[in-house]
Design goal:
The protein has helices at residues 10-18, 23-28, 39-57, 92-101, 103-107, 125-137, 141-155, 167-172, and strands spanning 4-7, 30-33. It is mostly helical and 173 residues long. A two-stranded antiparallel sheet has the order 1-2. It binds heme C.
């Protein structure tokens, strides 16, 4: 399976230093694009989702109860990946990097504790793209559109127009 990953140029590289908003590109310097309209990829992703993600994020992408509240140990429950969560607030590349490297690497805080595993040594890049493409494919039109806007603006290194959004803050909300 061929996946789309483009090295990010120097111009964007400089913008990353200036703006933590697109720090996700900076994690590996590669911009990864999901393939939510490729139904072969999506079907493969659904299988991986049930094997690797459903135990925490729910068989129907519904997440764990009270997912906005940290528990007694300061850990967040797994958020939903359906429209009721905020996975769709994040650009493709950020979702890829959270899944591959884990939250603490992506937000740049080694002390940040989470039960969300880093899948770098568990799944190939193709499998991570597939599982996230399955998740993205499940979103209703409104959420899909919003997320595509975030995607476009991540590439332009700008905020989504007319909307309050901070990708990294959203990660922790
Ligand atoms: C052991 C439980 C667990 C498993 C298994 C797990 N996750 Fe998570 N995931 C979490 C938790 C908890 C969070 C919340 C992040 C935090 O703790 O700050 C999370 C967050 C995320 C986020 C960020 C969502 C957002 O809105 O910010 C993504 C994307 C994600 N997980 C994808 C996946 C994928 C894809 C898989 C399977 C390949 C997976 N996770 C497997 C527990 C898990």
């Amino acid at each position: 399976m061929k996946i789309r990953q483009t090295p990010v140029g120097i111009a964007i590289g400089l913008a990353i230093v200036a703006s933590p908003l697109i720090a996700s590109i900076g994690t590996d310097g590669v911009q990864t694009i999901l393939q939510a309209d490729d139904l072969t990829v999506v079907a493969h992703g659904e299988k991986i989702y049930q094997e690797q993600c459903a135990a925490c994020h729910g068989v129907q992408l519904e997440g764990q109860p009270n997912w906005r509240q940290r528990d007694g140990q300061g850990l967040l429950p797994a958020p939903p990946h359906d429209a009721s969560g905020h996975t769709w607030h994040h650009a493709d590349d950020l979702l890829f990097e959270i899944t591959k490297y884990g939250p603490s690497v992506v937000i740049g805080d080694a002390d940040y504790r989470s039960t969300m595993p880093a899948f770098a040594n568990i799944l190939s890049d193709e499998d991570i793209v597939a599982v996230l493409s399955f998740i993205k494919n499940s979103w209703p039109d409104n959420e899909r559109q919003w997320q595509e806007e975030v995607n476009g603006n991540q590439i332009d290194s700008q905020l989504p127009k007319n909307r309050e959004s901070n990708l990294l803050d959203r990660l922790l909300k």
